[in-house]
Design brief:
566 residues; 16 helices; 6-stranded parallel β-sheet; 5-stranded antiparallel β-sheet; alpha/beta
Length: 566
C-alpha cells in the first residue's frame, strides 16, 4: 500500500502467516462444503443464508453464492411472504457492509438492484444518499455511477438535477471521467434535437464547448475533458442522404444499383424507395460490409427489367426529401450515376455558421495552448480534429505536421496516428477525384491512385463507386478488403504489398477483368479465394511463393478458364 514502510518478515513471521492462511482456507472449504450440501439437499433456508453470509463477508465477489441467496430468498418468501421487509432490510444492510469491503463489486451492486426491485417499500432517497457517500470516497467508481443511474430512474430525479450533479462533481475535479461520461448521456435527454434522434441541440453543444474549454485550459494534460470534447465534435452530424448512386446494365433485363450513404443504414428499404419507369421495384439489398448484419454505408441490389418495359429507363430513387433520377437513354447506354459527394469534403463539411464560429474560437484557443504546451498530445490531436472540421484543405500541411509529431511524442500509439494520417490523405484524394470528375464531362478518365502511401488497409473505398482503374501498389496491405465496393472496377494494381490473401469476395464485380498482384506473399491456392469466380482476362502473380508450387499454373488454369498468367 502507498505510504507504508515495507518491513521484511522473519522466518517465524512467515511461518505464522502461512499457518493462519491455511486455517482460513480450511474454514473456507468447510463452509463451501456445507453450502453445497444444503443446496444439493434442496434445503434453502435461513441457515443457508447465514452460511453464505459468512463467506461473502470476506469475499463479496463470489457470484455463485449470490445466486444461491436469491434462490433461497425466493423460496422463503413463498412460504412466509409477511417476512419480506425484514428479509430485504437485513439483505440491504449486509450488502452495504460488503461494499465497504469492495466498493467496486459487480456482484454486490447487482444483488442490490435485485433487492430494490422486489422490495415492497423501497427507499430510493436512501439509495441515492448511499451513492453520494460512495462517490465522495471514490468519485470515479463507475460501478457506483452505473448503479446511481438505475436509482435515479426509480427515485424520480429529473434529468436537470442530475446534470447539475455532474457540474458539481466536475468542478470538484476536472479529471472525473465518470462525471464527464454521465454528462454525455444526460445532454441529449435534457436538450433533445427534434430533427435527429439521440443528438443534443446545436445551442446545447455550443454551450458545452465553452464549458469544457475551461477544463482543458485548467489542466491541459488531463485526458478526461479532451475525451468529452472529442465526443462533442462527434455529435456534429450531417444529414442522412445518398452521396452517390450508380446503375449498371449487366444485360437488357438486369440492372445493378449501388448506393453510398452519408450515415450507416441497417435496411435501405426503411427510408427509400426505387422505381423503374414509375413501376415500384421490390429491392433485396446486399450489404457488402463485414459482418453483413451491421449497418453499412454501401448497398447493392439487382433490378429486373421485364420484356414489356420500354427504353429509355428512368430509375427514380426517393429517400426522405431527396430524389434522384438515373437515366439509361437506350440499350447502348450501360450506366448512369448521380454524384453528391463532390459537394462536401468529409463528415463535417456542412457546418452551420454558429457551429463554425464556435469551432473557430476553439481552434484559436488550441493554437494558444500549443504555444504553451508544444508537446501535449491532447492539444495536438484536438487541433487536428478541429482543422479537419473547419477546413481540411486549407490546413493540410499543419494537419500532416501535427500527426507526424504525435507519432514521435507517443510512440506506443504511432500506429493509430499513422492510420489517422492515412485516412486524411485518402479523404483528400477522394474529394479531389470527385471534384475533378464532377467538373468534367462524364466520358473522362476514372483512374484513382493510392500508390506509395504506406497504407496498412484500404479506407473509405465505398466512396469510389465510379472508379474503373485503381492503383494501390507499393503499400503495406495484407488483404484487399474494401475493394468489394468498387462496382465499376475494371483494372486493379496491387503490386508490391504484403498480401497474404484476398480477404473479401470480388466475384460480384461484373467489370473486373485485369489484376496485378506481383511481389506479394500469396502462398497457396486458397489465398486467392475471392477472385476465383471472376471472369478475368489477365492475372499477374510473379514474385509470389504460390507459383513455386508444382503444377500451380495448371491448377489455376482449371479454376480460371482462359486467363492469361504472367
Amino acid at each position: 500500500m502507498h505510504g507504508r514502510v515495507k518491513v521484511k518478515t522473519t522466518e517465524e513471521q512467515a511461518e505464522a502467516k502461512e499457518k493462519e492462511r491455511l486455517q482460513k482456507l480450511e474454514k473456507f472449504k468447510k463452509l463451501l462444503d456445507a453450502i453445497h450440501a444444503k443446496v444439493d439437499a434442496k434445503e434453502l433456508d435461513i441457515e443457508l443464508l447465514e452460511l453464505t453470509q459468512h463467506v461473502l463477508s470476506g469475499n463479496p465477489d463470489y457470484y455463485t453464492l449470490w445466486n444461491i441467496r436469491r434462490e433461497t430468498m425466493d423460496v422463503l418468501l413463498e412460504t412466509k411472504p409477511e417476512d419480506i421487509k425484514q428479509l430485504f432490510g437485513h439483505e440491504l444492510h449486509f450488502l452495504e457492509s460488503c461494499l465497504q469491503v469492495n466498493p467496486k463489486s459487480y456482484s454486490v451492486f447487482l444483488q442490490r438492484r435485485w433487492v430494490m426491485t422486489r422490495h415492497p417499500n423501497p427507499d430510493w432517497k436512501q439509495e441515492l444518499s448511499l451513492c453520494n457517500t460512495f462517490l465522495q470516497h471514490d468519485e470515479r467508481n463507475f460501478h457506483c455511477w452505473d448503479y446511481r443511474r438505475f436509482v435515479v430512474k426509480h427515485a424520480g430525479v429529473s434529468v436537470g438535477e442530475e446534470f447539475e450533479f455532474t457540474n458539481s462533481k466536475i468542478k470538484a475535479n476536472f479529471s472525473n471521467y465518470s462525471a464527464w461520461h454521465y454528462r454525455s448521456k444526460l445532454l441529449p435527454e435534457l436538450y433533445p434535437d427534434p430533427t435527429s434522434k439521440g443528438r443534443p441541440t446545436e445551442d446545447a453543444l455550443l454551450q458545452e464547448y465553452q464549458y469544457v474549454q475551461n477544463a482543458f485550459f485548467t489542466d491541459p494534460s488531463d485526458q478526461s475533458a479532451w475525451f468529452y470534447h472529442r465526443w462533442l465534435l462527434g455529435r456534429i452530424g450531417v444529414s442522412h442522404h445518398i452521396t452517390c448512386a450508380h446503375v449498371y446494365a449487366v444485360s437488357d433485363s438486369k440492372l445493378v444499383l449501388s448506393l453510398c450513404t452519408s450515415q450507416p443504414v441497417k435496411n435501405p428499404n426503411q427510408w427509400l424507395s426505387v422505381s423503374v419507369n414509375k413501376q415500384a421495384s421490390a429491392c433485396s439489398w446486399d450489404n457488402l460490409s463485414m459482418p453483413a448484419e451491421w449497418p453499412a454505408l454501401f448497398w447493392v441490389t439487382s433490378l429486373h427489367v421485364s420484356e414489356s418495359t420500354t427504353w429509355p429507363l428512368h430509375i427514380d430513387i426517393q429517400a426522405d426529401d431527396q430524389k434522384l433520377v438515373l437515366l439509361l437513354a437506350d440499350t447502348g447506354c450501360r450506366e448512369a450515376w448521380s454524384l453528391e459527394a463532390a459537394k462536401a469534403f468529409g463528415k463535417f463539411a456542412r457546418l452551420t455558421a454558429a457551429t463554425a464560429a464556435v469551432l473557430q474560437e476553439e481552434l484559436a484557443s488550441c493554437q494558444q495552448l500549443v504555444e504553451l504546451e508544444p508537446d501535449n498530445k491532447w492539444v495536438l490531436l484536438t487541433l487536428v480534429f478541429l482543422m479537419q472540421c473547419l477546413d481540411s484543405e486549407g490546413h493540410h500541411s499543419v494537419i500532416i505536421s501535427c500527426l507526424d509529431k504525435l507519432k514521435s511524442i507517443d510512440p506506443y500509439r504511432q500506429g493509430y496516428f499513422h492510420e489517422l494520417k492515412s485516412h486524411f490523405l485518402i479523404q483528400e484524394q477522394i474529394h479531389s477525384f470527385h471534384q475533378q470528375f464532377a467538373a468534367s464531362d462524364k466520358s473522362g478518365e476514372r483512374k484513382f491512385s493510392l500508390s506509395n502511401m504506406c497504407l496498412g488497409r484500404l479506407l473509405d473505398t465505398h466512396q469510389l463507386i465510379l472508379v474503373t482503374e485503381l492503383d494501390v501498389s507499393h503499400n503495406q496491405l495484407t488483404d484487399l478488403r474494401g475493394c468489394q465496393y468498387l462496382q465499376c472496377l475494371e483494372c486493379l494494381n496491387a503490386d508490391d504489398n504484403r498480401l497474404e490473401k484476398i480477404g473479401c469476395s470480388l466475384d460480384h464485380l461484373p467489370r473486373l477483368t485485369w489484376m496485378s498482384l506481383r511481389n506479394n506473399r500469396l502462398m497457396t491456392l486458397p489465398s486467392l479465394d475471392g477472385i476465383l469466380g471472376l471472369q478475368l482476362q489477365a492475372l499477374f502473380l510473379q514474385g509470389n511463393a504460390l507459383l513455386l508450387i508444382h503444377n500451380m499454373k495448371s491448377k489455376l488454369n482449371e479454376v480460371l478458364h482462359g486467363v492469361r498468367f504472367e
